[in-house]
Design goal:
single chain; 184 residues; alpha+beta; Ribosomal Protein S8, Chain: A, domain 1; GMP Synthetase, Chain A, domain 3; 2 domains; 4 helices; 8 strands; 33% helix
């Protein structure tokens, strides 16, 4: 098994591509070991000293390290844990793991549906290439609230991405949007 590694815009996060499907649907964001308990893969990664967060995408895993951890030291251990996981045959996420609640389009207004469609079609594919994800939380009083996950969470360029990229795009297509903010 050969696992490719890619840099992300977040220097604390690396993207690992095992060359196979990690999650067949959706994503999973684990900010600590307790949250990762339902994932055999996340548990293995959180057992490594220096791992702060784990994000699972369709065909990639992003790992965020603690500040004092050094990638040249940590990376071989992460690669070994990912390889061991996939060779074990265990799923990345246990079947009974709680799934994050997705926004129900039937309960949204027209503006919210337009926002979600633009985010899903134009933003999420681009940030997935960088090892992250951005999902819609809510729209209220002209403000779009978004969740940043994986490499996007804590990224030094996240504010620029939100303001210069996503906010400008949403304002262009949806005049009711005044601002975009991150859910913290």
């Amino acid at each position: 098994m050969f696992i490719q590694t890619e840099q992300t815009p977040n220097p604390a996060t690396l993207k690992f591509l095992p060359g196979q499907v990690v999650l067949s649907g959706g994503t999973a964001d684990f900010r600590n070991a307790r949250e990762g308990a339902a994932s055999p893969l996340a548990r293995a990664l959180f057992n490594l000293p220096g791992v702060r967060a784990v994000f699972l995408g369709h065909d990639f895993v992003t790992v965020t390290k603690d500040d004092p951890a050094d990638w040249p030291v940590l990376k071989p251990h992460v690669l070994a844990a990912i390889m061991d996981h996939f060779l074990s045959g265990l799923p990345a996420l246990e079947a009974d793991a709680p799934k994050p609640a997705a926004a129900d389009p039937g309960l949204m207004g027209e503006i919210e549906r337009q926002i979600v469609e633009l985010i899903d079609q134009r933003v999420r594919p681009a940030v997935a290439q960088d090892g992250g994800d951005i999902t819609f939380d809510r729209f209220a009083d002209g403000v779009v609230w978004l969740h940043l996950k994986g490499a996007c969470a804590g990224c030094p360029s996240a504010t620029a991405t939100l303001k210069s990229g996503i906010e400008n795009m949403l304002k262009h297509y949806i005049p009711e949007v005044n601002e975009v903010r991150q859910v913290l």
